[in-house]
Amino acid sequence: MKPSDLVVTPSGLRFMGRRFPRTIGRGGLTDRKAEGDMATPRGVHRIVGMLYRPDRIAKPADWALPIGPRDLWSDDVRDEDYNMMVRAPHAFSHEHLRRADPMYDLILITDWNWPYAVKGRGSAIFIHQWRGKGRPTAGCVAFRRDHLQWIAPRIRPDSRLVIA
Questions:
Q1: Bridge partners of residue 29, in order along the sequence
Q2: What helix, strand, coil percent values describe the chain, rounded to 5?
Q3: 89: preceding bond cis by omega (within 30 degrees)
Q4: How far apart are CA 81 and CA 104, in angstroms?
Q5: Is 1 a residue whose pLDDT tops 90?
Q6: In percent, how much of the chain has pLDDT > 70?
Q7: Rg value, the chain, Cα
Q8: Terminal C-alpha separation, the chain
Q9: Given pLDDT bands bounded at 50, 70 and 90, which one contains residue 82?
Q10: pTM of the full structure
């Protein structure tokens, strides 16, 4: 493990000598991730991007990109842009990145099934703000807002999300 790794443990997440409470997917952890299974994929996932809502939070790192009103993430296996950021209008099923709630105010993008996605192997595996302690995600790893905002500027180009 590298010092810059985010390591998911049964009791939380270890990062830079600190421990943080976290939530994972409603389907638990899996070695066989599939679209819609609500599970968090095990493995070592690179952090490949950071998105944020500039109307709600300050830019968390110099490499973070703003989320605009038309920004979406494709989750449709029929889409040639499956598991990629796309723009509205978009004819295929997708997630809105600019949400009414604060869950996606700050997103760390993992390389799960990206950039060369296998259709149906799962999409939009992010690190984001949780809905509340103990409330599961649809497959992502999530944190309290203040913890996520502490973690984000400390992510380095070699940071990885390690889920054993």
A1: 40
A2: 5, 35, 60
A3: yes
A4: 20
A5: no
A6: 100
A7: 15
A8: 12
A9: very high
A10: 0.96
Condensed to tens digits (0 to 9), the pLDDT of residues 88-111 reads 999 999 999 999 999 999 999 999
DSSP code per residue over 85-117: EEESS-SS-EEESS-SSSTTSEEEEE-TT-SSP
Can you point out the beta strands (E) in 16-133? 18-20, 29-30, 40-41, 43-52, 65-66, 71-74, 85-87, 94-96, 106-110, 126-129
3-class state of residue 122 by DSSP: coil
Q: Could you tell me if 52 and 60 are in contact, meaning their C-beta atoms sit under 8 angstroms apart?
A: yes
Q: Using CA atoms, how far apart are residues 67 and 140, in angstroms rounded to an integer? A: 18
Interval 136-157 mean pLDDT: 96
Structure tokens at 47: 């952090």
